[in-house]
User: Fold this.
Amino acid sequence: MSTLTFESTRFGTVEIDEEAVIEFPAGLIGLGGARYAVIAADPDAPFAWLHSVEEPDVALPVTDPWRHFGDYAVELSDADTARIGASEADDPAVWVTVRAASELSGFSCNLRAPIVIWNGCGHQVINEAPDAPVRAPLFPDAVAVPTA
Amino acid sequence: MLIITRKPGEKIMLGDDVVIHVMEIVGNSVRVGIQAPRSLPVYREEIWDAVREENRAAAAAMPAALPAAARRAA
Assistant:
């Protein structure tokens, strides 16, 4: 099992299994990049990091959407299904990006553009299912701190 | 920006591999067909812009900003 080391401005020097590197042929929407890895500082924590293995300061917190939204559904266009090259039966990994905020009530995840990982390849796709907002609140019970 | 005027039925080539068909005009809308290599994603611009914004916001986070535990959905 060979390993790969990359630099991270957040986490220092990170060593991963070479097989954990994910190729993104089309990068992430608006962010680009070609090679990323999912790193989890704490396997029990709700958040992992999708970290560029090329750019030390590019990393996005991600979470498992079904951990927060039990009936989350992903519907893809025929074009995106073909682009990924996998079907549901192939059991791809699905992550959604997390927008952090100073208050819990401001945290959200992007259910509209999940990241689908399969066979060492990753694609950010557009979910055509209804009720898949780009900013889905992660902590709906949290109360926003009122200002002044 | 290159500005081209087309009639329904006419097409635009982007390089050799992408074809934009101007198919028909219905009321206020233009129906556009796009032929592109399977590997090239095509987005409605407003969706692409919203997703880019979320990606940028996510990428701005530092580890300390994330809570250690999350409440499960009911």
